[in-house]
Amino acid sequence: MSAKATPEKKTAVLRRLMKEEKLIVAPGVYDAYSARMTQAMGFKMAVTSGAGIANSHFGYPDLGIMTRTDNLEACRVLVRSLDIPLTADADTGYGNAVSAYHTVQMFEDIGVCGVNMEDQVFPKRCGHLKGKEIIPAIEMARKVEAASKARRDPDFLLVARTDALAIEGIEGAIKRGKMYAEAGADMLFADAVRTEEDIKRLVNEVPLPLTVNIGFGIRSRPTTPLIPIKRLTELGVKRVSVPRMLPAAALMGMRQAFKVFQQAIESDVPVDRPDLTFTIDEITELMDYEKVFGLERQFLSEDELDNKYRARSVV
After folding, report:
1. What is the distance between the terminal CA atoms of the chain, rounded to a whole angstrom?
2. Which of 40, 127, 130, 255 could covalently link to 191 via disulfide, CB atoms 3.0 to 4.6 Å apart?
3. pLDDT tens for each residue of 229-263
4. Residue 247: which residues within 8 A CB-CB, separation 6 or more?
């Protein structure tokens, strides 16, 4: 009897994706539904939406109120829900370089495949809001160095995010990117990139693969313009994350369903809108109920199964 093959580590899968020429598109997930849907739709990796988690799990605005413990517990659920690699938004690392060291190990322990940490002053805020402040570049470089040395799995991905574009301009962002590369970062995340020219310069002048956010579905003016994915590939971007699409789509879907339901309350006839909702069968398939049913068939006795599932006559 041949031994069962050991599954490839998710961190190794992510590193393999990083080495491929193809650009990686990573939707932002925030709960088990969004995580499972991302995987079901064929995406090869996911990222966490820090704002999505803060908003949906805790009712907080994305202004640095969510704690490291809050974030870790939410990410633990997401990791459990996915077979594909997940990287997490670790905000500022929750303190100084020593805090960043421990933050990396805590996220590594729960099974995420990497983290991004940013150079904002704590408490941080959404990168597309006004009022951002950043720490000195050397301080962030020390945090990156500590984070790099903290990881026990060499394939764990360390993404250094800079919010310098809004404060120091492209020259400051490039200078910081070079420093973060030297300190041990694996990827640069330049948030709130405003132009294709800035993207070109970051790709060409910083010795790290570049990841950017796009605001697909955000109807108000996004900080980063909606550049086609094909064009971002041509520019040399390695990863595109789409953090706001799924929570924004979920909120729109809920509001649309409520509008119909509120009309149905006043109706004299049943109102059904299957175009607005998943069926029970679709939900059970997405959440893999069949896996548990299979475990029942494998481990419960015939008597237990018969008692659980046999047809009962109602007298």
Report:
1. 52
2. 127
3. 999 999 999 999 999 999 999 999 999 999 999 99
4. 28, 30, 34, 49, 51, 52, 55, 56
